[in-house]
Amino acid sequence: MELKTVVILANSVKKKPGRCIAGREVFGTGTSVSFGPWIRPVSPDGEASQGELMPQQHCLTSGKEDIEVLSIYEIPLARQRSDHGQPENWDVVTGRPWKRVGSLNRPNLQALIEELPHLWDVGAPGERKVHVDAPLDVRGNTSLALIRPSGFKVWVQREQRHWHTSKTTMRGVFEYQGRDYEFDITDDSFAPCRRAAAQSNRTEFRPPFGDDCALCVSLGTPYFGYHYKLIAAVIPLRNRARSST
Question: What is the spatial distance between Cα 37 and Cα 27, in angstroms, rounded to a whole number?
Answer without folding.
Answer: 11
